[in-house]
From TrEMBL, chain A:
Residues 167-293 form the FAD/NAD(P)-binding domain. SUPFAM superfamilies: Aminomethyltransferase beta-barrel domain (SSF101790), Folate-binding domain (SSF103025), Nucleotide-binding domain (SSF51971). Residues 597-868 form the GCVT N-terminal domain. PANTHER family: AMINOMETHYLTRANSFERASE (PTHR43757), AMINOMETHYLTRANSFERASE, MITOCHONDRIAL (PTHR43757:SF2). This is Aminomethyltransferase. Belongs to the GcvT family. It is an enzyme of class 2 (transferase). Residues 497-582 form the SoxA A3 domain. It comes from Tropicibacter naphthalenivorans. Residues 886-973 form the Aminomethyltransferase C-terminal domain. Keywords: Methyltransferase, Oxidoreductase, Transferase.
Automatic annotation (TrEMBL), chain B:
It comes from Tropicibacter naphthalenivorans. It comes from the Bacteria. Pfam families: SoxD. The lineage of its organism: Bacteria, Pseudomonadati, Pseudomonadota, Alphaproteobacteria, Rhodobacterales. One of its GO terms (biological process) is tetrahydrofolate metabolic process. One of its GO terms (molecular function) is sarcosine oxidase activity. This is Sarcosine oxidase, delta subunit family.
């Protein structure tokens, strides 16, 4: 154990955990990384490409090295940063990307071949032979590279999503964020304060600086208590604001239960869409390192991270208590770490400062004007080489902190193509003026990294942001604080021949950047893609600016001339699970159930998806061996007696108003205004381009009241288009529309005995042919007072009705009809039988109205009225459509056991098969139990004139063909006598 | 994106269905001698400018009103929104 004194850990709450199967213990308040360090574990993983041993490098979400597989089984989470994984009792984690044990990774052999694996290696090497790429190279490379493994099991957790609104979103709860939130909160503004950490305080928790003469956490606790007491402030810890979107919408992920052993009854994570009028970006800064030879050994980390582990987590970076610690810095910030470590009793080798004449700021040794030029220690740092004035010497060291300056976290400010600008005084990119609208950067994110600066700029940012939306906020009393010296020199990397890593996660070295320069991959976009710099899961948070500096040196240009790197959402990785936000399985595609669904299910029906609906497909009975047997029975039962089918899914649109008739004249190709009250008419709707769009019936229940029905698939679209026509084209018409598809259950009662059955449930309504003829409709009551609508319409060609009742009575009506119709042979039928019945009758459905067909093709050209304007009327008369010669016909299969499948194309017998000889295509096909043979509907060139001709229906995809005879599409009752009986 | 609905205030764009160029409001006169050519343009020609554009959005998961939204397609800035029926009535009166 190398646990130090102090820290924000709860020593009364020890927690057990395992790493690579070894048991350790830590405390509440630890992260996995801090607990491992406190247990003397430096080696935490292997690098991506060369499989180099790696230790933790940072203390935050920028971590490039310490990636682990967290948890077991289905909850195994690869590439989890140990630096942000909150410790809980029983946590288990494994290092990743190695073959064999972590300390003896067999793939470490890659490191020996590193001269071959330089930037662009894959592009150049695996070019040839081409066929080898997919089968050999790619699997090999993928096996050797890659990071963590997926569990390959379904995600057992649930996720949620939600919307939040505020006046001011404060991103980050360090000194700037807390000052901003408090200023805005006291002004009464609606504030959301989000931070990825589980404590408020940000960098204040990592530093030893005093606020008002006391440890900073005391001030943090006071502010937290006040913010919690304000009803207008919402504090969201464990929440990463990961992206900025249009119009002040921010994406955020709240890790609701990732810190618990099991999520229990809560969700794991929540995706929040936060709509904020203004925002303060107080996201802090990320420290950068200074590349030098062999700078990637476990034990080498950012100096600010070392300070954070010592101050917040009381964890020492060394394996054993008295191992020496060294600091390598180009500025005063490294000395700050040295002072804090000394105060914790560390054994300090000294500070290697690149600045000539740099002096100690405490009781430790300074190597001024010096550099670290080499390191030793395969699995953990053992010694460092210090070079000063050309003289090199080796020194034992168990850990090395590197301080290369701080990069403001400009990420979110660049999400709207905002370009960071170079600040030469601070040697850093700071947010530019062209970032997302309404966002004010503050604190270290704006280059105001001193504690006092951060507090002041946070408060000022909140006041300025709120003033823009008319809320007056007043300055608040800020605690007294000091700004630590930020003096540093522009020292970017240590020259040398050995490999010096820039991007740890993707194993990119200074040499790779030199190679990219040599090969003219100099613009930063090319540099990134050629070397993969900054393209790992950390987006190069600790690497990009240092790499730019190296490229700038090589090209002899200034750093801003060399390029800027901007960041895309997300700020840190976001799991696909939370982006789905619970929309999985049936949540992703909800099912709509018909009113008789449960009734049908109880009868053993098979169901089929029709648009969003589940419809009964057929109702098997005991002893039926195939679905065809069932469907044949259902079809024959309708033709011989009476059948019942739930047709609720057809769209129903209520059209009311003085101009309803005129409006429908313009919607339908045929006349609707002349329809008599109490009657129904079949109608065709066209698209404005003249093609067929939808068909259905239109019933006139009163002078100013129509009910339009649509096909199931187009129910939503037809309604939307009718609203378009009303609001956008003819707003002066007095008409109102409402979709009532869900309000009415509708059941088709079809067959010669349908009138007899209905007469048993209507309340004294005269159903005689004289009183209620074909295409009549009426409001009535049934079953002793239940209001209903009755339509005498037929899709099957038989005497038939459709009866509608309020949806909640749909199942009861079906049961009543079944009971009362038992002696009539009442039979429920599904969509299959419905399809067979309509094909036998030659009625069009979706397959015939596929968006490429016209009214003429259906043989209904004369329905398109020439006397009036309607949607699509003008375009339907254009030459190409008017001369269309294909017509709907029926086909009878001449091969007794073979069906012409829908989609098959028609050719003359013996003709070569090409586009030129194509005669049309089969739209719908089925077995007709009525005709005891296979039949089909088809569009055929000059179809009307070709009755009796023999053609071939060819299906070249399957190499099959069927001889067919052209017949009328009306296979049964072509005169329509049955309908009108 | 947020769409400033003239009746309901700012609404999330996810509540809307997008149609496109608001030119679709201007259905040609079917009686005109060149009606067929005019309809051909109306049906097939759409403006798709990089910049300020008037477009039709349907508040399908809301109050079912059609809006004419003025949007800069480059910046996504929304400069205004009107009920389509108001626009249609105004243009019809001219």
């Amino acid at each position: 154990m190398t646990r130090l004194s102090g820290g924000l850990i709860d020593r009364n709450r020890p927690l057990k955990f395992t790493f690579n199967g070894t048991a350790y213990s830590g405390f509440a308040g630890d992260t996995l990384a801090s607990a491992l360090l406190a247990n003397g574990v430096q080696l935490m993983g292997r690098s991506f490409k060369y499989h180099r041993p790696r230790g933790v490098f940072s203390a935050g979400s920028e971590e490039p090295n310490a990636l682990v597989e967290l948890r077991e089984g289905a909850r195994q989470e690869p590439n989890t940063r140990a630096t942000v994984a909150e410790l809980y009792d029983g946590l288990s984690a494994r290092s990743q990307n190695h073959v064999g044990p972590l300390h003896r990774d067999l793939l470490a052999v890659n490191d020996l071949f590193s001269p071959f694996f330089a930037a662009g290696f894959y592009y150049k090497t695996f070019m040839w032979p081409r066929a080898f790429w997919e089968k050999l190279y790619e699997p090999l490379i993928r096996n050797a590279a890659g990071l963590g493994r997926l569990s390959m099991l379904p995600d057992p957790d649930s996720y949620d999503k939600g919307f939040l609104h505020c006046d001011l979103l404060v991103i980050g709860a360090g000194p700037a964020g807390l000052a901003a939130a408090l200023t805005a909160g006291r002004a009464g503004a609606r504030v959301i304060l989000g931070d990825e950490d589980f404590h408020l305080g940000g960098r204040l928790l990592m530093e030893s600086d005093l606020l008002d003469g006391a440890p900073a956490e005391a001030w943090v606790a006071t502010v937290k208590a006040e913010l919690e007491s304000l009803p207008n402030v919402r504090i969201m810890t464990r929440t990463t604001v990961f992206g900025v979107y249009d119009h002040g919408i921010f994406g955020a992920v709240e890790r609701v239960s990732d810190h618990l052993p099991e999520p229990g009854s809560t969700v794991r994570q929540t995706l929040w869409r936060i709509t904020a009028k203004r925002s303060v970006l107080a996201a802090g800064a990320t420290e950068r390192h200074i590349p030098f030879a062999d700078n990637d050994r476990p034990g080498i980390m950012l100096a600010g991270a070392m300070r954070a582990y010592a101050n917040r987590w009381a964890a020492s970076p060394v394996r054993q208590g008295n191992d020496a610690i060294a600091i390598f810095t180009n500025g005063d910030d490294g000395h700050r770490t040295a002072r804090d470590l000394l105060a914790k009793g560390a054994n300090l080798l000294g500070v290697i400062d690149t600045r000539k004449g740099a002096a100690a700021q405490g009781d430790y040794k300074v190597f001024d004007g010096a550099m670290v030029t080499g390191t030793k220690g395969r699995l953990g740092l053992r010694a460092i080489e210090i070079t000063r004035d050309g003289q090199s010497s080796w020194h034992d060291a168990g850990a090395l902190g590197v301080a290369g300056g701080w990069n403001p976290n400009v990420h979110l400010s660049s999400h709207h193509r905002g370009r960071p600008v170079w600040d030469e005084a601070r040697l850093a990119f700071v947010p530019g003026q062209n970032g997302p609208a309404g966002m004010i950067p503050a604190g270290a994110a704006a280059g105001q990294g001193g504690t006092a600066q951060a507090l002041a700029s946070g408060a000022a940012g909140a006041i300025a942001a709120l003033a823009e939306i008319g809320i007056t906020a007043h300055p608040i009393a800020l605690p007294t604080a000091k700004d630590a010296s930020a003096d540093q020199e522009a020292f970017w990397h240590v020259p040398g021949k050995r490999r010096a890593w820039v991007d740890f996660q993707n194993d990119v070295t200074v040499k790779d950047i030199k190679l990219a320069h040599q090969e003219n991959m100099r613009p930063v976009e090319h540099l990134k893609r050629w070397t993969t710099l900054g393209m790992a899961t950390d987006q190069g948070k600790t690497a990009n600016v240092s790499a730019l500096a190296v490229m700038a040196e090589l090209t002899g240009k200034s750093l801003p001339e060399t390029g800027t790197t901007i960041f895309r959402p997300p700020y840190t990785g976001v799991s696909l699970g939370v982006l789905g936000g619970g929309d999985t399985g049936k949540g992703f595609r909800p099912e709509r159930l018909t009113p008789t669904h449960h009734w049908a299910k109880a009868r053993g029906a098979e169901f089929v998806e029709v648009g969003p609906w589940m419809r009964a497909q057929y109702f098997p009975q005991a002893g039926e061996r195939t679905w065809r047997e069932t469907v044949d029975r259902e079809v024959l039962a309708v033709r011989a007696g009476v059948g019942l089918c739930d047709v609720t899914t057809l769209g129903k649109i209520d059209v009311q108003g003085a101009d309803a008739g005129e409006f429908l004249n313009r919607i339908y190709a045929n006349m609707m205004g002349t329809l008599k009250v109490g009657m129904v008419r079949y109608g065709l709707m066209l698209r404005e381009d003249g093609h067929l769009y939808d068909d259905g019936t239109c019933a006139r229940l009163a002078e100013d009241h129509y009910v339009v029905t649509t096909t199931t698939a187009n129910a939503g679209a037809v309604y939307r288009n009718m609203e378009f026509a009303h609001q956008c084209l003819w707003p002066d018409l007095d008409v109102q529309l409402i979709s009532t598809t869900d309000a009415w259950a509708q059941i088709a009662v079809a067959g010669p005995k349908s009138r007899e059955l209905l007469s048993r449930i209507v309340d004294g309504f005269d159903l005689s042919n004289e009183a209620f003829p074909f295409m009549a409709c009426a409001n009535l009551t049934v079953c002793g007072g239940l209001r209903a609508r009755l339509f005498r319409i037929s899709f099957s060609g038989e005497l038939a009705y459709e009866i509608a009742v309020p949806a909640r009575y749909g199942a009861a009506l079906m049961e009543r009809l079944m009971t009362r119709g038992q002696d009539l042979g009442a039979t429920p039928y599904g969509t299959e039988a419905l399809g067979v019945l309509r094909i036998e009758k030659g009625h069009a459905a979706g397959a015939e109205l596929n968006g490429q067909t016209t009214a003429q093709m259906l043989g209904l050209g004369r329905m398109v009225s020439q006397k009036k304007d309607s949607i699509g009327a003008i375009m339907s008369r254009r030459e190409g459509l008017a001369q269309e010669k294909r017509r709907l016909v029926g086909l009878k299969s001449l091969a007794p056991q073979t069906m012409a499948v829908s989609g098959a194309h028609l050719f003359e017998q013996g003709a070569t098969r090409s586009m030129e000889t194509d005669q049309g295509w089969v739209t719908s096909a089925c077995y007709s139990p009525h005709l005891q043979g296979y039949i089909a509907l088809a569009y055929l060139e000059n179809g009307d004139a070709r009755m009796g001709e023999t053609l071939v229906a060819a299906n070249p995809l399957e190499g099959t063909e069927v001889p067919v005879e052209v017949v009328s599409a009306h296979f049964i009752d072509p005169e329509g006598g049955r309908l009108r009986d | 994106m947020l769409i400033p609905h003239p009746l309901l205030g700012p609404r999330n764009a996810q509540e809307f269905t997008y149609l496109g160029d608001a030119q679709l409001l201007r259905r040609p006169d079917p009686q005109a001698p060149d009606a067929e050519a005019a309809f051909c343009d109306y049906v097939f020609q759409r403006s798709n400018p990089a910049g300020v554009h008037q477009e039709l959005w349907f508040h399908e998961q809301g109050d079912r009103s059609w809006l004419v939204v003025t949007r800069n397609t480059v910046t996504h800035e929304i400069l205004g929104a009107e009920l389509a029926c108001d626009v249609a009535k105004r243009e019809g009166a001219q």
